[in-house]
Amino acid sequence: MMVFLPLNLRIDNRSILFVGGGSLAMHKIRTVERFTRNITILAPEIDPEVHARGFSEILKPSEKKDLEGYFLVYAATGDHSLDLCIRDDARSLGILVNVIDNREESDFISPAVLKHDDMTIAVSSNGMNARKSVEWRNRIRDMVESWE
């Protein structure tokens, strides 16, 4: 059984790399951008919605040397074998990597997050049921909003 330790990582002063510039990456970018603007997108092509976010962009296929210096890497190309190569490259450089939508291949996963004022609430199913995590987060959000 895979178990992930819930942690709050300081990333406002760290560089985050998304390898892949499509809708798969966009889904996680929406979460990460609430905590930092230090995001770089590496992909041969970048979806207009991702581009509109205004992050640093590197328009080329991924190479191992491109990962150097990043704190976290999200492999989000949509190509499973390429994502695994990115994972292997990141790990060889000592960088934690998330293979989007594949908890078995990931060093970390991202929970469903609720930010409210100074509070951050994370709901995780250890990657087993993202839909249920989002449902629980939304229920908690509704409760918090009803208290005000």
From TrEMBL:
<dbReference type="InterPro" id="IPR006367">
    <property type="entry name" value="Sirohaem_synthase_N"/>
</dbReference>
<protein>
    <recommendedName>
        <fullName>precorrin-2 dehydrogenase</fullName>
        <ecNumber>1.3.1.76</ecNumber>
    </recommendedName>
</protein>
<keyword id="KW-0560">Oxidoreductase</keyword>
<keyword id="KW-0520">NAD</keyword>
<dbReference type="GO" id="GO:0019354">
    <property type="term" value="P:siroheme biosynthetic process"/>
</dbReference>
<keyword id="KW-0627">Porphyrin biosynthesis</keyword>
<dbReference type="GO" id="GO:0043115">
    <property type="term" value="F:precorrin-2 dehydrogenase activity"/>
</dbReference>
<comment type="pathway">
    <text>Porphyrin-containing compound metabolism; siroheme biosynthesis; sirohydrochlorin from precorrin-2: step 1/1.</text>
</comment>
<dbReference type="Pfam" id="PF13241">
    <property type="entry name" value="NAD_binding_7"/>
</dbReference>
<dbReference type="InterPro" id="IPR028161">
    <property type="entry name" value="Met8-like"/>
</dbReference>
<dbReference type="InterPro" id="IPR036291">
    <property type="entry name" value="NAD(P)-bd_dom_sf"/>
</dbReference>
<dbReference type="GO" id="GO:0004325">
    <property type="term" value="F:ferrochelatase activity"/>
</dbReference>
